[in-house]
Amino acid sequence: MAYANCLQILKDAQAKGYGVPMFNVLDYESAAWVIEVAGEEGMPVEVGFFHGFAPSFDPIAAALTVKEMASRVKAPIGLHLDHTPDYKTIAPFLKNWDSVMIDGSSLPYEENLALTKSVVEICHPMGVSVEAELGHVGSGASLDDIQNPDHYTDPKKAAEFVAATGCDSLAIAIGNAHGQYVAAPNLDFGRLAEVRAAVDVPLVLHGGSGIPDEQFSKCAAMGMSKFNVFTDLNMGYVEAVKKAIAAGADKRGMLGVMLAAKEETKEVIRHKMRILNPNDLHLYR
Ligand SMILES: [Zn+2]
Q1: At what angle do helices 109-123 and 155-165 cross, to 10 degrees?
Q2: Catalytic pick among 58, 82, 98, 188
Q3: How remote is the CA of residue 123 from the centroid of ligand 1, in Å?
Q4: Ligand 1: distance of its center to the CA of 83 in Å?
Q5: Is 280 part of any domain?
Q6: Quick check: is 52 in a domain?
């Protein structure tokens, strides 16, 4: 054990009623810490990678790190390629990745559908699963992106989109947004219930940082399966480093700082994992 395909991970979560966090990682440390926590909690997790992070974490090194560290824990660990605009961006990752996201959500509906379908047709024969997005998850810095239901996912269109594209999972917009939120999000749970009833593929919540814990848990309880988290981990990591230095851990140089920051950052990861596990399952301890 325990590297696993993300789609298998999500289907299990959907069947058993818990949520799987996907943490986008920037370096060896954050990847290894996410996997360590998954092992300690006995719950699956996905490690996310964004192509724009390549200057910080070489993609091949990232994939090797995830697969090696995954082999040391019982919990299933997935590796997912987050937001990509086209197949050209995906192609170099296919040697090492078996789960990708194609994001055509800012395109008109028909163009999003055609783009997603074309990526699915290339990826499925290679055993690569594809996440798509319908409705548009915008920026937490924009009140309109958070509160205007015109950006939210239409349940009827979602059913049509999944059937027409063959995508394996679907990211939806219900008042969630990327980055830090200018106003506290108030997720549209009625819409979540409608989309959940309309499609059978695992649903994905992007912008999982800054959403109040009870709303996060409620999404998991209502059948949302994957929860993308970057900002909370990224900022939590920085805060942990600052705190370690303020406490004098830097007297031992980077070794002291990283060892102190590790425990603090792991708690940020653990907290997200626990609020997505309302029945307190520990399936792989
Ligand atoms: Zn996203």
Answers
A1: 40
A2: 82
A3: 20
A4: 6
A5: no
A6: yes
pLDDT of the residue at 1: 61
Residue 137 CA to ligand 1 center (angstroms) comes to: 7
Residue 107 included in any domain: yes
Cα(180)–Cα(212) distance, rounded to whole angstroms? 12
Residue 232 is among the residues annotated as catalytic for this protein: no
The pLDDT score that the predictor gives to residue 59 is 98
pLDDT at 79: 98
Alpha carbon distance 33, 69 (integer Å): 9
Q: Which domain holds residue 69?
A: 6-275
Distance 230 CA to ligand 1 centre (A): 9
For 161-216, what is each residue's pLDDT tens digit?
A: 999 999 999 999 999 999 999 998 999 999 999 999 999 999 999 999 999 999 99
CA of 234 to the centre of ligand 1 (A): 14
What is the mean pLDDT of each successive set of 10 residues along the chain, which is 285 residues long?
Answer: 93 96 97 98 98 97 98 98 98 97 97 98 98 94 90 97 98 94 94 98 95 95 97 96 97 96 97 95 93
List CB contacts of 30: < 8 A, sequence separation 6 or more: 23, 233, 237, 265
Distance CA 40, CA 58 (A): 27
**Contact criterion met (CB below 8 Å) for 254 and 222:** no
Intra-chain end-to-end CA distance of the chain, in Å: 12
What is the rounded radius of gyration, in angstroms, for the C-alpha atoms of the chain?
18
Q: How many domains does the chain have?
A: 1
The answer to pTM > 0.85 is yes
pLDDT in tens, 71-92: 999 999 999 999 999 999 999 9
Residue 250's alpha-carbon distances to 79, 246, 254, 256, in angstroms, are 32, 8, 6, 6
- For residue 67, is it within any domain? yes
User: Tokens at residue 112, please?
Assistant: 């999003």
CATH code, 24: 3.20.20.70
* Distance (Å) from CA 178 to ligand 1 centroid: 6
